[in-house]
Amino acid sequence: MSGTRSTASGRGRLTTMVRSWPTVLLTVLLLALALPAGMLIAPALTGPARSTAEPAQTPSWHLVPERLSVPQGIDPLSNAAPVPVPANVAARLDPVLKTDGGGSFTAVVQDAATGKVLYDREGAASRIPASNMKLLTAVAALRGIGPEERFSTRVLAGPAAETPGAAPAAATRSIVLVGGGDVLLGAGDSAESKVLGHAGLATLAKQTVESLRKGGFKGQLQVLVDDSLFTGPALNPAWSPDDVAAGEMAPLFPLALNSARFDPADTTAPRPQDSAIASGEAFAAGLKAAGAAAGLTVAPAVVRLDGKPAADAKVLAEVRSATVSQQVDLMLQTSDNYLAETLGRMTAVAGGQPGTNESARAAVLEQLSGLGIPTDGMFAADVSGLAPANQVSARQFSEVVRAITNGKDTRLRAALAGFPVAGLTGTLGDRYIDESTAEGAGLVRAKTGTLNTVIALSGYVVDADGRLLVFSFIGNGLTPGAAGNKPALDTAATALAGCGCS
């Protein structure tokens, strides 16, 4: 145990040093810039030099460096680090991986580099995974769509309506707001430094008004909404109506404000039941504000388009979402069900399939198979984990995490930043704060999952010997509300972080 404590202390000193590097580097750079500048300013204050002798040479340490070298305080992981001995891993996990009341935990721990199984407690058994399901969706979206792809929300010109006795420029014209899969739209201006609200409907409205102004149009606009990218039922029948009523999910459309929330800061309130029309109404309000000075008015009602826009319809305006990798990170950090289901449908669309619940589930499983991850016994009732009918094993999850950290498809590395960090970010931000788990804070990175009788934690950690380990812990049949189940998983992951188990 003393070795573990000294390792943790050493890590603390190293963390302090690393955090101080930006300040140290900035101080050095400012001094390097300030000293030569002071030498240039000094003659103006003291008068001409008293001698024209050969000028003194500036010491090299006063010169601005040609480049800054960043101290390498933390070396890259080495495969030479010892692989933990399975019996030693079991000796750490068995005493802490116990349920509080009923139910049971399954678990798998693997060496990330070699895939060697270091711990296996019924790891092949299919279990209800809760929101760990989002790890499968993350992998599928990064492979099937691509990490740098973005979703477009466009405005197309519709046909001009006949207005008896009116001049052509004053006719009523329809414009079509076309949903392209961005459910993170903001009502205001585009905020390109953010993921939520990266594309703003106010910006889209201003672009639309400018296009119409250049075309000489003045008159009334009728906003139509095209949400035909997604088809089939907007709600998955596998979801509980109680969960929908509680705001865990809402009918799915290919455009929405704030991931279909009235207030992005309130994640427990009911959601809009028609996010497409709600988006159209926010866009119409932006048009009204931006178009008044250009002689444009907006019809009060927003109407869903019957059919699809003409193939040759003119594009009046367009805004684009954050990248798929940024959306995946947000989904994993916040465990957003609506965003997960959207990414699943967009993965199907990218593969030429319809944007339905069924196609999303099939697309996710297809992408896993393409990675070489066995899907035997796996069942996807949805792609967010809200449905209790999902079935995935701990071994399948550990293989997914291993594919993200060490697999050959480097596109999956984009998901690494999305794993919540113990005690710091996302759904792990308020965990790992008591004495039993504090040593895992900042080290464990894992996706959480919680349903009424289900809890799960799958992720990765570097152990005390410098070996990268991947793990998955899943509890099923648990006593609802039992206080000890989350700490059991967190303590187990902390034990891996402190494991010098070679």
Automatic annotation (TrEMBL):
Belongs to the peptidase S13 family. Keywords: Carboxypeptidase, Hydrolase, Protease. NCBIfam families: PBP4. Gene3D superfamilies: DD-peptidase/beta-lactamase superfamily. GO terms for biological process: peptidoglycan metabolic process; proteolysis. GO terms for molecular function: serine-type carboxypeptidase activity. The gene is dac. Pfam families: Peptidase_S13 (PF02113). This is Putative D-alanyl-D-alanine carboxypeptidase. It comes from the Bacteria. The keyword Nuclease does not apply. SUPFAM superfamilies: beta-lactamase/transpeptidase-like.
